[in-house]
Amino acid sequence: MATSHDQAEGDEDEYVVLDLDAVSEKVHIPPNAPYVLSGLDTLNPILIIDDKIKLIGEYEETVGTCIVLSENDATPEVHEETGSSEAKSFSGKSITNPNQVPRKQVKPVCQSQKILRFKLLSECQNENEQSSVKPV
């Protein structure tokens, strides 16, 4: 665990984007399922989801920088109408458009140079078995 003293000497947090696209079509990953991610400092980290789904990852460098964004509900924009007799009668009150689509506020959280793509562990074992079998 890095202390604030370690970070002051040049240790920086490193972020990695986890890519589960190849897995999501084959297995159902329940929302908010507990998970264990281990071996981040190895070539093939392991991700275990809900004590049932075991995945193996492989790092890939990105062509550019991945930017991770956080999305929050934005406060509605307030428009005050001016120039009409209605606006004068509602002076000081805000009028919002009920047909206006709710807006989201997006802000950057971090950036990453790496993607960690995951596959089912059983798929990786099948690939290794096929590559180790040599034609006679």
Q: Give me the side-by-side strand order of the main sheet.
A: 1-5-4-3-2
User: Which ranges are low-confidence, i.e. pLDDT below 50, for 5 or more consecutive residues?
Assistant: 1-7
Shape: extended
Average pLDDT works out at 75
Alpha-carbon Rg, integer: 25 Å
Task: Tell how many strands the DSSP assignment holds.
Answer: 5
Strand/helix succession: HEHEEEHEH
Q: How many discrete domains?
A: 1
Number of helices: 4
Major β-sheet profile = 5 strands, mixed
What portion of residues is helical?
A: 10-25%
Assess the beta-strand content as a share of residues.
35-45%
Q: Which secondary-structure class do the elements indicate?
A: alpha+beta
End-to-end C-alpha gap: 52 Å
Domain Transcription factor TFIIIC triple barrel: 11-120
Region (Disordered): 74-106
InterPro entries: GTF3C6-like, TFIIIC_triple_barrel
Pfam family, one: TFIIIC_sub6
